[in-house]
Design goal:
The structure holds 2 protein chains of 2 kinds. Chain A is α/β, with parallel strands linked by helices. Chain A contains 22 helices and 23 strands. A 12-stranded mixed sheet of chain A has the order 9-8-23-22-21-10-20-19-11-18-14-15. A 6-stranded antiparallel barrel of chain B has the order 1-2-5-4-3-7. Classes of the chains: A alpha/beta, B alpha+beta.
Chain lengths: ~575, ~200
């Protein structure tokens, strides 16, 4: 068996045709890919090989892992095309197939495998701790090429465990592709795709993964209330469970709209109320577009803040009645009265949101931070405010800013030896281009988080259908990108910018199926991979999620979690 | 028409001229040659050759053969009425050297020395033909032997050997693929051989 003897000497049987010999290297280059001639014995037909499938190449010293990028038909004699032999003839057909008329495949080698798995070259033996590295050379002539076996895929993408989350299967293979959760949450994540291509389901899966792994907490600004309690599968017309139903003890749901939550039968932990005092001029600046405010009007908020102080400016400002009061105030603080009038008008609209109160002792941000620090995952449901972009932008910006401030403080204290490291947090935002478009990205807290907050253990997960509208500086900071089908040229360019091999990926991206397929690349996977995303919504999938979550208790940095054996040992030590 | 290998080894004639790649054998009996493509062995230890040309000609090249059967009823009568014909004519065949046996091993390459003149030439018995041809290496020499073997001879050789195999068709496919690898740039020649194998 070619790839038979598995890791640690365990025998391993490849599933289906995986692991069998496909052919040998006959030419190519590192940049353009390697040309592989299919097995001359004629046992492997071009129809057995599919573009996008994984192969391994056994070089003299290294083993390479690559992906099929093209398939072609070749002939050793150009005259074959002009005078085709009688192919209905058994003997001629069998003799010519694979010899004079043969198939070739182009393979892009992505990785060099740690050592020889199962082979005897150099007596090498891989262990799962060794990780593959980016290929910097190519195999020599006539190196044998094999279909990747399940073991190879495991070696590359990791086996499903508390550090690796099964996100989906490679095309045409019944093998699991796993994301490295540690790497995933270390940097910001982007989930892209046209509307209706499965972004929400992919995000749900990622959230389940992060939750299972316990590497980070998540704060989800749940615009359409589809992550917390339950969501809709519009294709199948069924309702699917949200995080709170799947992991009740580890997820806290906050709501802005108690009524909507009650109607939906969602169990919520807390109702969020925001005081006027928490709204800062920066929030107004961010809402400039959605509120249709001029620059001057938006910046008038800073003057108001200066005049009345942070806690009171909005309350005082909204308390003004009539144009005369506003004109007087405008003269006092030196802004145009028309601009101030417009601001007043728009802020009154905001003031009508039921979750905003003039004075509240309830500190939503502090409560959310408290949950996050306990390692909980927080879903903030917007209820009927989900359709109001103003409310969504206002709330998420306001809360994220508070979290940012708190984490910077915690981290700096920890660096100074005065406390433990804050538990990493992933903030999930939808319609990300509204926060991160080039005109506001420099002002909003999300721009700052995307650019630098990795140092403070806060990262973003941005979900969007128009990646081209997101500031390129922010895009370049995304560590891992998961993208469903995109067909707009500019969006594809934006997603693939700065990625090696983007030419090949372009083709892959525009050929994705409209459902349940995603291209993943970046830090969480060792090489770009197209997956058929894992199922979400059946009883079996829920059971698997729960089984995965049971593998590991939440591990908050700085808080030691003892296993049963460790506890027993400690107690024995203490006794004697 | 297929002439399968005989079961027993049969002495056919003697080597009358030889070089490293070919030898010419004269048959003891007029028309007593092996078929085109047949495997023969010369000397001991044997050198193997594939018959690539058979010819019958006057022993004395200066005395051309005359037509004698004008009044005869059939061909056999010509030979009956002119018994001297058997002494004036002889059958010779050219064999392309394709391998040899040394120390009980079969080698598919040219021997260090050609067979000696007057070495006895035998037909290759069925069992030995099967063993010798199993490797198919002899086909490479035939296909690449400087074009000395015609497509017909190569096709006939494959057909002759396959008749000694339990599954002739699969042997023919295997042989065809070896030839295809050798002749990958010469499709017409390959086609001609394949057509001959099938005939």
């Amino acid at each position: 068996m070619i790839n038979g003897a598995g890791v640690n000497g365990q025998s391993w049987e490849p599933a289906g045709p995986a692991g069998r010999e496909l052919g040998h290297v006959v030419g190519g280059s590192l940049g353009q890919g390697i040309e592989v001639r299919l097995d001359p014995t004629g046992l492997v037909s071009v129809e057995d090989v599919k573009v996008g499938s994984f192969v391994t190449i056994q070089g003299n010293r290294s083993r390479f892992f690559g992906v099929v990028t093209d398939i072609a038909l070749g002939t050793s004699d150009a005259r074959l095309k002009n005078a085709p032999p009688p192919m209905d003839d058994d003997l001629v057909g069998q003799v010519l197939a694979g010899t004079v008329a043969y198939g070739t495949v182009s393979v892009l080698p992505h990785l060099t495998m740690p050592a020889v798995v199962g082979g005897s070259v150099n007596g090498g033996r891989a262990s799962l701790e060794d990780s593959p590295v980016a290929a910097k050379t190519i195999p020599s002539h006539f190196a044998k090429v094999y279909a990747a076996s399940q073991q190879d895929v495991f070696t590359v993408f990791g086996q499903e465990d508390d550090r690796h989350f099964w996100i989906g299967n490679p095309l045409d293979m019944d093998t699991k592709v796993c994301l490295d959760l540690g790497e995933l949450v270390k940097r910001s994540i982007g989930v892209f795709g046209k509307s209706g291509t499965g972004k929400t389901f992919l995000t749900r899966l990622l959230l389940v993964g992060i939750l299972q792994g316990g590497q980070a907490s998540t704060l989800i600004f749940d615009m359409h209330s589809e992550y917390g309690w339950s969501g809709q599968d519009t294709d199948r017309g069924i309702s699917v469970k949200g995080l709170k139903q799947l992991f009740p003890s580890r997820v806290s749901t906050f709501t802005l709209d108690e009524e909507s939550s009650r109607w939906r039968g969602s169990s919520t932990d807390e109702v969020v109320r925001i005081g006027y005092g928490e709204i800062e001029p920066e929030d107004v600046a961010l809402l400039r577009e959605t509120l249709n405010l001029s620059d001057v009007a938006a910046s008038a908020a800073y003057n108001l803040q200066q005049r009345f102080g942070q806690r009171a400016w909005m309350k005082e400002f909204l308390a003004l009645q009539g144009q005369t009061d506003i004109t007087d105030l405008a003269n006092q603080i030196g802004v145009q009265s028309q601009a101030l009038g417009a601001l007043h008008n728009r802020l009154r609209r905001i003031g009508r949101f039921a979750f905003l109160e003039e004075d509240t002792r309830y500190d939503a941000a502090a409560r959310i931070i408290e949950h996050l620090e306990r390692g909980k995952h927080v879903v903030l449901e917007f209820g009927r405010y989900g359709n109001d972009l103003t409310a969504y932008i206002l709330l998420s910006n306001l809360l994220s800013r508070r979290i940012h401030d708190r984490y910077v403080e915690l981290k700096e204290k920890a660096d100074g030896g005065q406390g433990r490291e804050p538990n990493p947090v992933v903030i999930v935002i939808e319609e990300a281009h509204k926060f991160l478009n080039p005109s506001v990205a420099s002002q909003t807290i999300f721009g700052i988080i995307a650019r630098e907050l990795r140092k403070y253990n806060v990262t973003l997960m941005v979900i969007d259908q128009r990646p081209s509208a997101i500031d390129s500086e922010v895009m370049s900071q995304l560590g891992t990108r998961l993208t469903c089908l995109l067909d707009n040229e500019r969006d594809i360019d934006a997603v693939l910018s700065g990625t090696a091999g983007s030419r090949q990926l372009r083709g892959v991206l525009s050929r994705l199926e409209a459902k349940q397929q995603a291209l993943i690349f970046g830090h969480a996977v060792p090489m770009p991979v197209v997956v058929h995303t894992r199922e979400y919504g059946s009883g079996q999938s829920y059971a698997e999620f729960n089984a995965g979550a049971g593998r590991k208790a939440v591990n908050i940095p700085g808080v030691q979690v003892e296993t049963r054996e460790e506890r027993l040992q400690r107690e024995i030590d203490e006794l004697f | 028409m297929t002439h399968p290998p005989a079961l027993a080894k049969e002495r056919l004639g003697e080597v009358v001229s030889a070089n490293s790649t070919t030898f010419v054998a004269q048959c003891y009996e007029l028309y007593g040659s092996p078929p085109l493509g047949g495997l023969v062995q010369a000397g001991n230890p044997p050198i193997f050759g594939v018959v690539c040309e058979v010819r019958t000609e006057p022993l004395d090249p200066s005395r051309p053969v005359l037509a004698r059967g004008e009044t005869a009823a059939d061909e056999e009568e010509v030979y009956r009425d002119n018994p001297q014909i058997n002494r004036l004519l002889t059958t010779r065949f050219d064999a392309l050297v394709v391998g040899y046996r040394a120390e009980e091993m079969y080698h598919h390459r040219l021997p260090p020395f050609p067979p000696r003149v007057h070495s006895f030439v035998y037909s290759c018995p069925q069992d030995e033909a099967g063993i010798f041809a199993e490797d198919l290496g002899f086909l490479r020499i035939l296909a690449r032997g400087g074009g000395q073997a015609s497509e017909e001879a190569i096709g006939a050789a494959v057909q002759w050997v396959s008749a000694a195999c339990p599954d002739p068709f699969s042997f023919q496919v295997r042989a065809g693929r070896v030839l295809a690898a050798e002749l990958s740039g010469d499709l017409p020649r390959l086609n001609a051989i394949l057509r001959r194998i099938e005939s």
